[in-house]
């Protein structure tokens, strides 16, 4: 097991390298730089000497390949560089944003699992019923709703009209503040989970071993609990892992909308000011999150299914 | 017949199964199985052997359903029983072995637990107690090192071993009727004989009646005293196994017997197989508008005599 985790950790390195390379290329191609964004904010042109000074301070006058080499060298020492905007090490900028983001992702995913999986299960046990049709219609709607629109709708109804919950912001210990962003973020994975669970249950219910279980004279609850649930879990886990992993990325819009001080809103701010080291650092964190979650999913597979071995 | 013999364990009367209410795919099938007897049901695939077995267990899947007839099990019509009563019979008084040992066991549960489950559900045993019984069960079906095997998962066992596990599950509660649906079809030829012997031996010891469903006339000939031949949802002939082979009465049975591959005449057998069955097909006109066949009792008065 430990060897598996070690090997998977090593396998992350090429993925990270590819990501760093892509970001470098993109930011060298798109117009504008940190300096030009400063000038636009000040509504006036800057002294050419100042520009040259800043360029050399940030190493922006060096060729792209040299900058890439410097960055990778730093990365090898766990150094993400210095933020252009705050002049702080990038890690110090990201670190306080990490926990709010993880908290939001966990809450959203918790909501998705607790609501989506049972819904899919119940729908599958009575296929074609009113409940089934209703749930699946909701699931399709949940998947198709744009998150920002859903977020705005939730804000309007629950914060502005009903006044039950705060419309935005973050307080470390506050449960109230997390409810709306977590639901806005969790609805689409919830819908997807409901659908995959339903498909998984229907699939497993048709399996030969379920027929065997019926031939054994098991009661329906026992049959579902002992022979269907775990087999469905293997199928649901894949969706769950992928959704959980990509949640950090999806949170960008929601965090910006609800002024949630997480990784996503940091990314948006940094892109608009061309604070490239922070953008790179944030993207690396999001990619790492995705890879780690997927590794955990693989470990969980092995725990559930004896046919899968990790070594 | 019933004058001299004990009451049958299973007595199927005019059983009809349809896709939905109307389109019948099993027509007026009737036969009896006596206690301790092994009754063979042969026929091509699609002739209705398997659904006959499944309907006895109450495992028909929608849209298949019994439209009329009786399935008398130990004197009561199981078709009239409620779901609960029927479920209690399943696995306990009647059980079933399926064709595919590869997929018929839950891949995520140890085989010991899958056997033990029977005893927990039907005998109210505790899990540790049932587990010990499960090891005994594995020993009975001659699985080597049963202690260790009980902790194995299905994927760690060979096909033959898995089928032995299925037999152990089916016989865990010492049922009165075992329905074996093509129990050896998916197995290697080398292990087929062993599994069949095991079924015959264990059922004989317990006095369990067996409904053996197979398309393999060799298997049927070895295992059964009485054989029913099915064709397109009808029981077309019912005979003693010996008589059936020596003197098949129904043209379809003759075709079926002729279709057996024979040792030593490979090319001939291959050709014979096709032409002879084709002749039956041609002579009977197996199309939709074929005249309905008579029931076996009418067609073959000798059977009931």
How would you describe this protein?
The complex is a heterodimer of chains A (311) and B (305). Chain A is mainly alpha-helical. The model of chain A has no long low-confidence stretch (mean pLDDT 84). The termini of chain A are close together. Chain A has two domains: 1-90, no CATH class; 93-304, MetI-like fold (Orthogonal Bundle). In chain A, 77% of the residues lie in helices and 0% in strands. Chain A has helices at residues 2-29, 34-42, 48-57, 64-76, 90-125, 130-144, 147-161, 176-205, 208-215, 220-257, 263-272, 276-304. A six-stranded mixed beta sheet of chain B has the order 6-7-8-3-9-10, with helices on both faces. A four-stranded antiparallel beta sheet of chain B has the order 2-1-4-5, covered by helices on one side. In chain B, α3 packs across α4 (127-140), α3 packs parallel to α6 (159-171) and α4 packs across α6 (159-171). Chain B contains 13 helices and ten strands. Chain B has 305 residues and is α/β, with parallel strands linked by helices. In chain B, a hairpin with a 2-residue loop joins β4 (64-73) and β5 (76-77). Chain A binds chain B through residues 207-209, 211-219, 222, 226-227, 230-231, 234, 304-307, and chain B through 57, 59, 87-92, 95-96, 98, 100, 103-109, 117-118, 121-122, 153, 155, 166, 169-170.
């Amino acid at each position: 097991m430990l060897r598996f985790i070690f090997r998977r950790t090593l396998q992350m390195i090429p993925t990270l390298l590819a990501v760093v390379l892509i970001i470098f290329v993109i930011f060298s191609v798109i117009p504008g730089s940190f300096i030009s964004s400063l000038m636009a904010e000040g509504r006036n042109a800057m002294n050419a000497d100042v520009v040259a000074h800043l360029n050399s301070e940030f190493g922006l006058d060096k060729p792209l390949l040299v900058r890439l080499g410097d960055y990778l060298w730093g990365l090898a020492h766990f150094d993400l560089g210095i933020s252009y905007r705050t002049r702080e090490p990038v890690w110090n900028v990201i670190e306080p944003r990490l926990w709010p983001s993880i908290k939001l992702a966990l809450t959203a995913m918790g909501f998705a699992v607790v609501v989506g999986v049972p819904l899919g299960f119940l729908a599958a046990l009575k296929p074609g019923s009113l409940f089934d049709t209703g749930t699946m219609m909701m699931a399709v709607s949940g998947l198709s709703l744009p998150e920002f629109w859903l977020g705005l709708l939730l804000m309007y109804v629950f914060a502005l009209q009903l006044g039950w919950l705060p419309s935005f912001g973050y307080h470390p210990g506050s449960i109230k503040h997390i409810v709306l962003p977590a639901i806005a973020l969790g609805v689409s994975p919830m819908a997807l989970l409901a659908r995959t669970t339903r498909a998984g249950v229907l699939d497993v219910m048709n399996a030969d071993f379920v027929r065997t279980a019926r031939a054994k004279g098991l009661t329906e609850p026992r049959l579902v609990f002992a022979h269907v649930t775990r087999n469905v879990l293997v199928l649901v886990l894949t969706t769950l892992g992928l959704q959980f992993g990509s949640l950090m990325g999806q949170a960008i819009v929601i965090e910006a909308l609800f002024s949630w001080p997480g990784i996503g809103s940091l990314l948006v701010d940094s892109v608009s000011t061309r604070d490239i080291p922070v953008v790179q650092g944030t993207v690396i964190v999001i990619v790492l999150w995705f890879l780690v979650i997927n590794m955990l999913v693989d470990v969980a597979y092995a725990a559930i299914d004896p046919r899968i071995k990790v070594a | 017949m019933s004058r001299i013999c004990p009451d049958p364990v299973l007595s199927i009367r005019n059983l009809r199964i349809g896709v939905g209410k109307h389109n019948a795919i099993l027509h007026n099938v009737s036969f009896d199985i006596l206690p301790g007897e092994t009754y063979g049901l042969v026929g091509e695939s699609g002739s209705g052997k398997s659904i006959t077995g499944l309907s006895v267990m109450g495992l028909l899947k929608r849209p298949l359903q019994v439209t009329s007839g009786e399935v008398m099990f130990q004197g009561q019509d199981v078709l009239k029983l409620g779901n609960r009563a029927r479920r209690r019979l399943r696995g306990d008084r009647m059980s079933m072995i399926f064709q595919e040992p590869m997929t018929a066991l839950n891949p995520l549960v140890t085989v010991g637990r899958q056997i033990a489950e029977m005893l927990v559900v039907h005998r109210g045993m505790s899990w540790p107690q049932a587990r010990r019984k499960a090891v005994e069960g594995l020993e009975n079906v001659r699985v080597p090192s049963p202690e260790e095997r009980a902790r194995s998962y299905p994927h760690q066992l060979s096909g033959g071993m898995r089928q032995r596990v299925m037999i152990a599950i089916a016989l865990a509660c010492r049922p009165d009727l075992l329905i074996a649906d093509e129990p050896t079809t998916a197995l290697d030829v080398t292990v087929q004989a062993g599994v069949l012997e095991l079924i015959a031996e264990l059922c004989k010891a317990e006095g369990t009646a067996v409904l053996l469903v197979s398309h393999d006339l060799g298997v049927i000939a070895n295992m059964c005293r009485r054989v029913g031949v099915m064709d397109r949802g009808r029981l077309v002939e019912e005979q003693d196994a010996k008589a059936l082979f020596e003197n098949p009465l129904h043209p379809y049975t003759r075709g079926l017997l002729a279709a057996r591959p024979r040792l030593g005449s490979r090319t001939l057998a291959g050709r014979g197989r096709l032409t002879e069955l084709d002749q039956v097909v041609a002579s009977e006109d197996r199309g939709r508008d074929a005249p309905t066949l008579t029931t076996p009792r009418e067609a073959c008065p000798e059977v009931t005599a």
